[in-house]
Design a protein that fits this description.
Elements (H helix, E strand, L loop, with lengths): L35 E5 L6 H10 L3 E5 L2 H6 L2 E4 L6 H6 L3 H11 L3 E5 L1 H4 L4 E2 L5 E2 L7 E4 L8 E6 L17 E6 L1 E3 L7 E7 L1 E9 L2 E4 L7 H15 L3
Parallel strand pairs: 1-2, 1-3, 3-4, 4-13, 5-7
Antiparallel strand pairs: 5-6, 7-10, 8-9, 11-12, 12-13
């Protein structure tokens, strides 16, 4: 299991109380259009928590399995739980073509957990599988001499100076559930690491394609800040 939806309310320590309107939370100001975020349903995600987090930040949110919707929109998110291969296979064909066209036409993409993993060239879970190849690197199993999955809060380190990490203090704790991760990425794409048995790349990105191994929607105020930064970078309006 590389990423799981086993998280329950007991595991959400630190999640902020949702109160106030969008303008008071610093996303939508007077005269501004409400951001729109398109969440791609690859068939393996617990999408409700992400949708609630985006709406908390003031974003209009649409969950879709329609390639035409993905092709038209410019603020895309790809979450996922479970193993690498099912969501990868679910995206083949029209959805993958639409996703690639959207990115070529200027869309932004944020992958989360397994949605992050399949951005890479390939993964080794349950046998080798190709990824989308949008980021260079291979997703590999964490060391076998530690308890897996890696489940719980862990600190980021080696953070890059990148807009996705704006206003997130160095060493912030975020919430992980996974047994596989991209390892040893180049400085070109690695934006932050965490360590569990060995260092792994917790955030990566190149251009308009970004991703997190952890669940920002489960990571309290720092996770919300990362989603806020993404919405602002992608100008999701």
């Amino acid at each position: 299991m590389s990423c799981s939806d086993m998280m329950n309310s007991a595991s959400l320590t630190g999640r902020p109380v949702i109160e106030g309107d969008a303008a008071s939370r610093g996303i939508v100001g007077d005269g501004q259009a409400v951001p729109t975020a398109t969440v791609i349903n690859a068939g393996v995600g617990n999408l409700g928590n992400l949708e609630r987090a985006l709406r908390f930040l003031g974003a209009e949110t649409e969950i879709t399995t329609d390639p035409d919707v993905v092709r038209r929109h410019r603020c895309l998110l790809l979450p996922g739980v479970g193993a690498f291969r099912p969501p990868r296979d679910n995206l083949r064909g029209a959805m993958e073509e639409a996703l690639r066209q959207a990115i070529d036409d200027g869309a932004w993409l944020l992958g989360i957990c397994v949605g992050y993993q399949i951005l890479f060239e390939g993964g080794e879970e349950f046998g080798d599988s190709d990824g989308l190849g949008l980021l260079p690197g291979i997703v590999r199993r964490l060391p076998s001499n530690i308890i897996l999955p890696h489940m719980g809060w862990n600190a980021l380190h080696d953070e890059a100076d990148h807009p996705l990490l704006r206003h997130i203090p160095r060493g912030s704790f975020v919430y992980f559930v996974h047994s596989f991760a991209p390892l040893d990425l180049t400085a070109e794409v690695s934006l932050a690491k965490a360590t569990y048995g060995q260092p792994f790349d917790a955030i990566a990105g190149r251009g308009r394609v970004l991703g997190t191994q952890f669940h920002p929607e489960k990571s309290g105020r720092h996770g919300l800040q990362l989603l806020r930064n993404y919405l602002e970078m992608a100008r999701c309006n």
